[in-house]
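Subject: histidine kinase structure
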Amino acid sequence: MTAEATTTQTPGGLELPRPPGVVRRFLGAHPLAVDIFVAAFYLVPSVIGALVASAVDPTPQELIHLVLSAVAGAALLARRQQPAVVFAIATVLLGTSVFLGRDMDVVPTLFALYALAVYRSIRSAWVAFAVTSAVTVSTLVVEVLLAQAKAFTPLETAAVPSGILVLSFSVVAVLIGSNVGNRRRYLNALIDRARQLARERDQQAEIAAAAERSRIAREMHDIVSHSLTVMITLADGSARMAEAAADRPDPAERSAQAMRLVAETGRGALADMRRLLGVLRDGEDVSAAREPQPGVGEIGELIETFRAAGLPVRITITGLPPDDVGQQLTIFRVVQEGLTNALRYAASATAVRVVIVFGPGTVIVTIDDDAALHPSAGHGSGRGLIGLRERVGLYGGTLEAGPRPGGGWRVRAVFDAVRAAAPESTASPTAETPPAPSDPETPPTPAPSTTTKENP
């Protein structure tokens, strides 16, 4: 389908404009009919004229001219696919028609020059014009020499006017073909560019969708892994206390309290999953209740949940937390993942310490446990740590997870802090912010601009 006839919607969802004019749309939509019309436009008069001339004065020259005209007319059907071959046949007819007792037959050559300019290139059309000029001049020179030697009957039209006429029509054919060909190639380039942009748009949409799916998968892992780990631990402890509650009511009450906490944790996880998966549903009510993502302020509730599950957690927070919501969510998820792994794999731990240091330009989050046996290498899929590395990497940071030198396991995240720009009017030229401590386990005494909170 040509550029002028493109009226349908492209695969990229791009609807191209319809070309103006009913005639142009018809010609563009029926290229074979146009080729048949062009071939018949030349072939019918030529064949009829040759047949009439052969009937009046049958000679071998008339028969040869009839055959060449029929071949050239049939070749015009392939002017779009093979314009060079059509030009070669037309050039043979142009050169031999002089010596067949007729004037120069230039019509097939004109169609061939036009087809070269439109369907090949402008350069090939001008090269073909040079060949046409050479054939025309050389043929007419030979014709004049033979006519002067009385060996050939001269043409009805003189050689010089015939040559000028042929070359003039040839130039016009090349110029018209160049104009149409340039416009055609320009439109094709615009259409190709539009299709490329449409494909790039679709690819960007797919990339964005994949990134969103990855983000949702990380959130789902954090929610499900944390909640189920706490629920399983509480359920196991409740079962053990229930077995020992035959004659003592206190373990029975503790068991019931643990099961109530299991139910609350499950309901909270279910609500988080419904809210998170709501973005994946199309056509449903978008006015559902929305809650903000957890941040540093919710870490206390998170710690209490793990303490209720039997994990001996202590937390120390130094400095002012960043204002960026995304960074606060990252800090929350790092603490959540570290404590979840400790609850799952460090059952023998006697102390789990969470240290969060908010420096002037760096945030350091460390979760340590002292469990002698930490079989995390043989359990789990590792996707939680992979997701955390991606979260931390968004802020130019790193995440390390591995054994501690003195025993136990450590999860440590370090990344750049995003701070809101302070107004110039409130800035103090003499105020100094203390540097972040090099060891999170032994934080220095904070300056007045920071706060230290330790929850035993």
